Amino acid sequence: LLPQRFHIVGYARKQLDLEGWRSNILLNLGCRVLDQKDCATKMEEFIERLSYMSGQYDSAADFAKLDAYLEDLEDGQPTGRLFYLAIPPNVFGAAMGSIKASAIAKNAWTRVVVEKPFGRDTESYMELRDQCAEHFQEEQLYRIDHYVGKEVVQNMVVLRFANFIFEQLWCKENIRDMHIIFEENFGTEGRAGYFDQFGIIRDIMQNHLLQVLAYLTMERPKSLHAADINRVKTKLLSEIMPLKARDFVVGQYEGYREEEGVPEGSVTPTFAACVMYINNQQWEGVPFFLTAGKNLHNRKAEVRVRFKKGHSMDFFPGEEVSLQYATKMRFGMILRVILCAS
């Protein structure tokens, strides 16, 4: 989907040489071209478009150097600039101020993408919102959850609303429960200082898994336009019954408190499980189980939809019949539909 003419410039505080940065990218770069024989050529062409600069987020002077480098790449042609801020929320404001002061596009559009989490509570959200508004107009800003870009999450809308069989069955009369599971078999990997400020509930459950829940349970949107999908998602989220402490089980993996950046005696959870209920006619009484954790035995992301026993299940006494819909992406999400015989 990228245009023929594009460049990707990495910018961070860490000092990295270009080849080292490109090598890191290659470790996580997959090939999805139809003609697999062209993979090596396509990947090489992509890597050649990557470059890297080091600088501080709050330095207008460093961003001025970035601006000069971008102008050389643009070669005098009208070129839009998209700044993707995969950085801690506490430096959003400083980075945006530096961009606005020194690095906005001179002859085309400028857009800024900010990653979750967008604050840790209402107060911090409002503070971040005001910082963003100070430097950019709303139409220039995109607040995203990258999990929504996963192939299976994207396909859930099609799976549900373009599939006559599923659409008719997708309600409390037929579905017994749903499980949304996110497990990682590694810890914070050098991000403990950041992670400890948010924990697994804010870092994974209230954005990644809640987005998946919304796609699984929302009403049919009028169209696939973003505004229509957002409208039905927002309605669905407002119908989730408030959670209390008794609805959760939380834990922390052994050795977490010894990791660099974790305060002594931290009680930040690295594992959480909860049950949610949706207060509307379609889902009343159906439990939705959300589970997320780090440093567990497995690495997986999975949705399990369990249907109630029907008369036809008498042919399978004591058995479960499952239909698995899986993505081809490495470590991607799996949607598993289970027909219960008990």
Describe the protein's architecture and organization:
- The protein is an alpha/beta fold and about 350 residues long.
- About 35% of the residues lie in helices and about 20% in strands.
- It has nine helices and twelve strands.
- It has helices spanning about 20-25, 40-45, 60-75, 90-100, 120-135, 150-160, 165-170, 190-215, 225-240, and strands at about 10, 50-55, 80-85, 110-115, 140-145, 175-185, 250, 270-275, 290-295, 300-305, 320-325, 335-340.
- The strands form three sheets. The protein has a seven-stranded mixed sheet with strand order 7-8-9-6-10-12-11, covered by helices on one side. It has a three-stranded parallel sheet with strand order 3-4-5, with helices on one face.
- Strand 4, helix 5 and strand 5 (about 140-145) form a beta-alpha-beta unit.
- The longest helix has 26 residues, at about 190-215.
